[in-house]
Amino acid sequence: MSNRPLEKNTENTSPTVSVVITCYNYGHYLDGCMQSVLQQTYTDYEILLIDDGSTDDTAEVVQKYNHLENFHYIFQENGGQARAKNRGIESARGEFIAFLDADDLWHQDKLAEQIPLFADPGVGVVYSRAQLMDANGEKMEVGDAGEYLRPRSGRVVEWLLFDNFVWFSSSVVRATCLQQFGGFDESLAMGIDWDLWMRLSLHCDFAYVDRPLLLYRVGHPGQMSKNADGRRACADRILDGFIDAHKERLHPRAVRQAQAYADCNRGYHYIDTDRWRSLRFFARSVCMHPWSLEPYKGLFHWLFRF
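Above: the chain sequence. Below: its structure as tokens.
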């Protein structure tokens, strides 16, 4: 990939897109990430790199990009991923904000394919499918992600109750939506994107490009999503808090089914560490949604686990 400079903004007008990259000790991956943005066929953008207190070679990697007209490097003391992303939102000048984590990569046509979907003024978030890759950048083949991880368009709030199907580093958000309805919840350690998508989905439509415009890296050291217990706790807090705050705007059947689905997942989570707690979650899932096969499958696994 070539390191071509961004177009100069000679009229001092705001770019259409602000690319917000957040980085914490991902200097090893940062150059590839930056190059994937610089290779975009859509060029009306600025890059804001938020360094969340990295102690590796991130600052050294950044030096090769400091000469670019529309590149802005912002260092902050380590405050967590939500604070870093909010810092990017606060500093952005674009009409749209495209999020990217420093260990991920974009397809060169990503922005070119996504930005036109905002021609519909009701659309607030545009995302895409993703291709998984390992720590070394090798593409990985994965099976069907399941019903609740299929991409959806339109008013997706009741689908988001079940699971987060929006790949974060594929997302582009209308900046006015973030200004009106808030950014990332800095009290959350994980799941900050799912929390944001649910809140935004109450007010705007989602759209997606049905092909993998994101290369998403998995399995490398430091990846927060590997913390299963922390992820489960944050997911429970996010879902329960959202339903409590907005129950009057959600269809009761969707709420019941989503809570049953969450309880079934909780049952599987505790099946090896707290069997009686696991059983209670499976039983509650059956009570909430007795026509679903999933909690019965969970009870079968629970019964014959040992």
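The longest helix spans residues 228-246.
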